[in-house]
Amino acid sequence: MIQNKTFLKLADNSGAIVVECIRRYKPKHKLKIGSFILVIIKKVRIQPKLKAGLVHKAIIIRAKQKLARQNGNYLQFAENSVVLLNFKNEYYGTRLLGPISTEFRKKGIVKILSLANHLF
To answer: Judging by DSSP bridges, how do beta strands 7-10 and 81-85 pair with one another?
Structure first.
């Protein structure tokens, strides 16, 4: 389960490696795939576009928590991952690494699906 102070991996090529969740935008709801959170960058690559300590908006694309589908199957990922957004909801990265759930199509977030290379 993702909550405050949870460390998350990044699934894009924005330059950051690890971020920490500091706030969720809907505090009464459970954080699931497709939820928006506020994160702080903890660890970056050698020559990044971003710097450690900056606060950004992010969207959860993979979670360890089981996700029930309509056909009765469950989907569960091995790690918690996010994609960084700026405050205009534009993506920093140009590629998404790893598998992406097709539930984003139902939520209307189709740009993530076009950046991904593996869909489940």
So the answer is: parallel
Rounded Cα distance between 57 and 46, Å, is 22
Helix, strand, coil proportions of the chain in percent (round to 5)?
10, 40, 50
In the chain, the DSSP E strands lie at 7-10, 16-24, 36-44, 55-62, 67-68, 74-75, 81-85, 99-100, 118-119
Alpha helix ranges (H) inside the chain: 103-107, 110-115
Distances in whole angstroms, Cα of residue 54 to Cα of each of 16, 22, 71, 110:
11, 12, 41, 27
CATH number for the 7-119 domain, one of 3.10.20.310, 2.60.40.10, 2.40.150.20, 2.130.10.10?
A: 2.40.150.20
- Using one digit for the tens of pLDDT, what is the confidence trace for 3-48? 889 999 999 888 899 999 999 888 777 888 888 999 999 999 887 7
Residues 6+ apart with CB under 8 A from 69: 75, 103
